[in-house]
Design goal:
Two copies of one chain form a homodimer.
Chain A lengths: L1 H15 L6 H13 L3 E2 H11 L5 H13 L3 E4 L7 E4 L7 E5 L5 E4 L2 H13 L2 E14 L15
Parallel strand pairs in A: 4-6
Antiparallel strand pairs in A: 1-3, 2-3, 4-5
Helix pairs in contact in A: 1-2, 2-3, 2-4, 3-4
Chain B binds a DNA duplex through helix 4.
DNA sequence: CTCGTTGCAAACCTTTTGCAAGGAG
DNA sequence: CTCCTTGCAAAAGGTTTGCAACGAG
């Protein structure tokens, strides 16, 4: 739904910058904006291949880098291996709760934290550019260790 | 100062676990506990070599891993390359303010954040194991890009 | 046609690990 | 002596990049 909007924004920016719209980029941006969860480069590669079989890893890498640079995607490196990507919602900033057992990621908004950090930064003579608040914990219910491939919305 | 205490704690744990006290481990733990700033494995290797020239990277790696497992060191992966290590002060938990320009790391304590996150986690049915609150910003004064400054690069 | 884009494979960087020689207990 | 440790070098695991062929405009 506003995956479509995001995709359009991406295309617009491409042409505005004199860069080209290609099947690969469309495929990558599409699966990314429609996924509804945090994706690694390999996740995205997998999904994109279903639409555009020939896509290569490097293209996914470069496209996601571009999306991140343009403020359309954010990169997260939670504890553990790879970088995960997530569409940026211009309206609301959110942070993450990560289960250390099953890896589930839950998003939450907490305005108080945002306010608090402004005060902390000011106290140390700094201007806030961004922040990261990650709470690592354990699901009290419904926690199951990571089994096979991360369950995609398929 | 209580670098000595920490070192002793480390030695005690070693013998308690039937592991051996060696010159390398002492050198590594010593420079680490005395540094007073965040160190990368290479920083530690460098410093340790001044005391015990033959130390190898693998030993630093394994020793720091051990310290982290034993709760004597914490590992941080701020935005950018390598993992940085810092002694854990059992008394107080703190978080970090990181300058995106010069890489300076300032520590701060903010009890309110701690309290807040318990509430957030509970709201989503999770029990907090640990957390990370990193504020990225820009120094308003005294900020100089990383030049020959020891240690912190980007 | 032109010049941005792509896939492949190699380069990189940091973190891990296998192994035979070395050393603490 | 016995095993834990060590340093070396190679393996891993992920991210970046060089390059010649490709293809959008």
């Amino acid at each position: 739904m506003d995956a479509a909007v995001a995709l359009e924004r991406f295309r617009a920016r491409l042409s505005r910058d004199g860069r080209r719209t290609t099947g690969q980029r469309d495929a990558i941006a599409t699966v990314f904006f429609e996924a509804g969860r945090h994706l690694s480069l390999l996740d995205i590669l997998d999904l994109a291949k279903r639409i555009s079989p020939g896509v290569g890893f490097a293209t996914v890498y470069r496209t996601m880098r571009m999306l991140a640079d343009w403020g359309l995607a954010s990169e997260h490196r939670f504890d553990g291996g790879q970088t995960l990507y997530e569409p940026i919602d211009a309206d609301a900033h959110h942070d993450h709760l990560i289960c250390v057992r099953c890896g589930r990621v839950v998003e939450y908004e907490e305005p108080e934290v945002e306010a608090l950090q402004e005060r902390v930064a000011a106290r140390y003579g700094m201007r806030v550019v961004s922040h990261k608040h990650e709470i690592y914990g354990e699901c009290l219910a419904g926690c199951r260790p990571p089994v096979g491939a991360p369950g995609l919305g398929d």
